[in-house]
# Entry
Amino acid sequence: MTIRLFPLFGGALALSLLPTGCSTVAEYSTMAGQAAGVITAEQAQSINRSAVAAEKTFQDITPEQEYYIGRSVAATVLATYKPYDGAALNQYLTVLGQTLAQVSDKPETFGGYHFLVMETDEINAFAAPGGLILVSRGLLRCCRSEDALAAVLAHEIGHVQSQHGLRAIKKGRLTSALTVFAVEAGKNLGGESLAEVTKAFEGSITDVTSTLMNSGYARALENEADAAAVQILTRAGYDPRALVDMLGEMKARLAADTRGFGKTHPSPDDRIQHVSGLIGEQPVAAAPAARRQRFDAMLGLIR
Amino acid sequence: MIKRDVVFLCALGLAGSLLAETMRVQVQSGQVRGTPSFLGQVVTTLPYGQAVETTGAQGPWVQVRAADGQAGWMHSSALTVKRLAAQSGGAAVSAGASGDELALAGKGFNADVEAQFKAQHADIDFSWVDKMVKMNASPVQIAAFARAGGLKQIGGAQ
# Structure
């Protein structure tokens, strides 16, 4: 939560809201949140507690390090799932995904958001740290509209902006690597130091990749990504109810497929219930013909 | 040490609307735009870790001035209040780059570490990752995509 507050209250604006006596970055961002009426005092207290507890872990990973972790995580996932080599569909996914990223709370990451289709019928999607997002052909087939596909991508952007992948890294690995960085600051890493850091790096990639591919995130993090998706869809002008439609379609298809998403995500029923509670009553304009046509043309390539 | 600096920042914050603050670029290529919008023309590009003075804000956009005097707008997610970690080894950095600091560009998990990882994992192919990070839509393409699809006007201060 703290991370997501940052972009909203970052910069000069947040500093100008500071009361006296605040002592940590997390504290002033929650104060700004309270001042703006976005969060309650109780929520702020709980956010501060968790931020302090996490300060020596994934938050110590710099954006540049997050970028390199994300590259290796994506490459590792692509060793299992072959990339789909079709420029038109990948470009469509890129334009759609970057459009959504632009209205997220964190439109800019070190290396930006990038999207690629995986050539598998398994229903699955992965968000590597920093913004490398992979979506399977099987999951694309669960989408009956551009709005539904946007919901899938917006959910993954939600995982990226809240740095869920980095939270999977075991603390011991970071402590070891960060100590080497400190001692060797200002120099190029050599010999033993490079070997030690590489070992910590390798372990970090395993931690993140096995969470993405095998164990899945905690339910609370999936809910957080779904909430981010509803927010992103609404800001972009897509119908957030498409997330519910997509989950319904996924439920029907997952009944016959226990791999991928079925293994790593809460049941679609639980997610549908959570998401339905987040969607407002405001009617959303029906998708214009041009939106439906471009989606049908692109998805026609893989059906 | 860190705490004292943060308290100092807090004190500065009291007069935030009057005083310029220092922030740092936390993305690979920090784009400074002429207007507070992704559609604004890029007036200059700043490297990771570069300091800027902030002079105003509008929604999620921050008005900045770079050391060379170039001024414009950056999205707040491209900036951080973290300080740059000390540049050389010694007592001052024995605790490492903490959560309040941005490590020097190229330090830590970097291209060298990635090269070592690749050398030890011949089965992991980075060629598609390299292709992927070059796949982009320009702000103009994004605006056209939004317009054609009947989406909201995307790009500017919300």
